[in-house]
Amino acid sequence: MKYAFFPGCVSRGGCPELYPAAIAVCENLGIELEEMLGAACTGAGVLQEKNQMLGDSLNARTFAMAEEMGMPIMTICSTCQGTMSQAHHRLKDQAYRAEVNEILSEEGLEYKGEVVIKHLLWILVEDIGLDNLKAKVTTPLKGLKVAPFYGCYIIRPTGALEFDKYPEREDSLEQVISALGAEVVEFEGKTKCCGFPILTINERNSLTMVANHTLDAKESGADAMVTPCPLCHLNLDGYQPKAGAQRQMQIDLPILHLPQMIGLAMGMDPKAMGLNRHIVPTAKILSQVALGG
Amino acid sequence: MEVTLNVKRFDPEAPSSTSYRQEYTLEIEDYSTVLDALIKVREEIDGSLALRCSCRAAICGSCAMRVNGHAKLVCKTKIQDVTVPERRILTVEPMGNLPVVKDLVTDMKPFWDRVRAVQPWLQPDGPEPEQEYVAPNEDMLHLTGVMGCIMCGACVSDCTVLEVDKNFLGPAALAKAYRFIADPRDAADKSRLEAYSQEGGIWDCTRCMECVEVCPKGVAPMDRIMVLRERAIDAGYNDNTGAHHTEAFIDSVEHSGRLDELRLPIRTFGILNIPALLGLLPVGLRALRRGKMPSPFHKAIPGADKVRRIFEKVEKK
Fold first, then answer.
1. Span A31-49, average pLDDT
2. What confidence tens digit (pLDDT) does each residue in B232-287 have?
């Protein structure tokens, strides 16, 4: 299986550990990647605040490139995925697509409306299959209690994300956690907002969200949290010390990127997964995994 | 079919007034709604169960409550759609972010207070028209989308910002605010946009889309808030971190095709905002120590000039 790889800005910026981890895991799983070097940022919903058509044009350009490559797009970020899915949904309207294509025509590109965009998380469940994933597990994460944290854009709006067509997307993260041998920790914040989008606008609210979710997961017994979204990771990991300080405490809940968790279960080198590059240390769970729970 | 309702209950007059769960199992027709089941419980099993409903046809907006964790109008929610045949059990709770009066009944006062705060009435300019004001048809057709709001409170219940900050105007009130901004008869756009740009207004929304997902009428409050942001920036109310953030983000993509994560917060706060920039330092240092700091040498994507051309072409439209 070959995919047009759209890594997103953050996997090479604020979360540089995500990019190599994703590449290594895909290689191990036999997922072939061809990176879309010339594709622009999705706009992350921020650019769309100012001009939705501009955002849709940038994404249509990326879709047209993937169509020319003849491959589905693979994302590794909930926000990239959701923003693209929403654009894809709007561009189903033929008249609108024609208008956007007119903008792309100068570059000789045309989006035909047939692109498939999938997050690695969905690829695991829908294209690879959980049984094939399980077959690659060499170090089952037995005894490790993991709280799933989706990121808004990969869970809402369900229409644009085609949950009706792919009902398994609703609990895909739990399915992957279980397939890797770990235990799913249910907690209320699972599908809520991490607070990152308002970090620079209302830091107090943003940090309250971080503290609420991480503490809730911890109190529910989680050893770690896993997320398919690097923006959530930036807040839940990067700002966790500050969120803890808001309540005069240390939260100390390691936050894993989805590919890191998979890599651990496939016995890959934690350092190659960038697990030493987190703000909240991951050593505790590494020894837990090594000891087999 | 047999169904079990796990209901969150609360009686303010009970000696220990804490909430608790109570399960009711009953036999009900296959096509029943959650409201049908709740009414049957009240009439045949437990007369003390308090709930609010009126029209039973998704028009009055009285019966919003949480089913399996998310706000819904129970009169338009079929039990079959929220349970699976092997397990006909569902949880019913009062709406979130509002005080509970009793059981499933919430106090809507904070909801109405926020709606009132956006001045939800027409504020035309000049002398009263001598005859009917004829608004363009397409404007009114557009407005019907947001006028479809039945004030049920579902969006407020599940808003992730209101959960941490009661000062936020919230999705219902801001959707209502948009309704007046988009009305061609209203002349108070500027003062409205200025007011909505303050703390607790349009920039405090996280864009989590919970309100879009739970609205039973397709009002899509968050989408309205995003248009309000665009209008506020266009009207010149851009001297706040929210607008700075949007503008810096767009600027970065326009000039390099991708996000410059290092400069984004600096531009958002402003290079002269020393206290805010100092506040970034500990986080920045922690990131630096872990090798997580984005490169100071921001690299454009190949073909960034093509991206710039798209900006030019769309902006000309």
1. 95
2. 999 999 999 999 999 999 999 999 999 888 888 888 888 888 888 888 888 888 88
Task: Respond yes or no on whether the N-terminal peptide bond of residue A157 is cis (omega within 30° of 0).
Answer: yes
B311 touching A (Cβ < 8 Å): yes
Kindly report, as residue ranges, where domains of CATH 3.10.20.30 are found in chain B. 2-106
State yes or no: pLDDT of A216 exceeds 70. Answer: yes
Q: How far apart are CA A21 and CA A24, in angstroms?
A: 5
Decide if A241 and B286 are in contact by the 8 Å CB cutoff. yes
Q: Kindly list the structural domains of chain A, giving each domain's residue range(s) and its CATH number in brackets, ordered by start.
A: 2-119 (1.20.1050.140), 135-290 (3.40.50.11810)
**According to CATH, where is 1.10.1060.10 located in chain B?**
109-234
Fold observed for domain B2-106: Ubiquitin-like (UB roll) (3.10.20)
Q: Record the pTM.
A: 0.94
- Mutation target to probe the A interface, by most A beta carbons within 10 A, among B8, B219, B259, B307 is B259
Single-letter code of the amino acid located at A248: Q
- CB contacts, 8 Å: B313 with chain A: 57, 103, 106
Q: Do A14 and B282 touch (CB under 8 A)?
A: no
Which chain B positions have a beta carbon within 8 Å of A205's beta carbon?
Answer: 161, 164-165, 204
CA dist A255 → A91, A147, A235, A251, A258 (Å): 35, 9, 10, 11, 10
Residues of B with Cβ-Cβ distance to A53 under 8 angstroms: 314, 317
Question: CA B13 to CA B48: how far, in whole Å?
Answer: 12
Q: H/E element holding B283?
A: helix B274-289
First-to-last alpha carbon distance for chain B, in angstroms, is 57
Q: Which residues of A touch B226 (CB under 8 A)?
A: 48-49
User: To the nearest 10°, the Cα dihedral for B64, B70, B76, B81?
Assistant: -160
- Spatial distance between the Cα atoms of A261 and A255, rounded to a whole number of angstroms: 10
Asked if CATH classification 3.30.70.260 holds for the domain at B109-234, the reply, yes or no, is: no
pLDDT tens sequence across A110-133: 999 999 999 999 999 999 999 999
pLDDT per residue as tens digits for the range B141-157:
999 999 999 999 999 99
B316 in contact with A at a CB cutoff of 8 Å?
no
Nearest to A279 among B203, B213, B290 (CB): B290
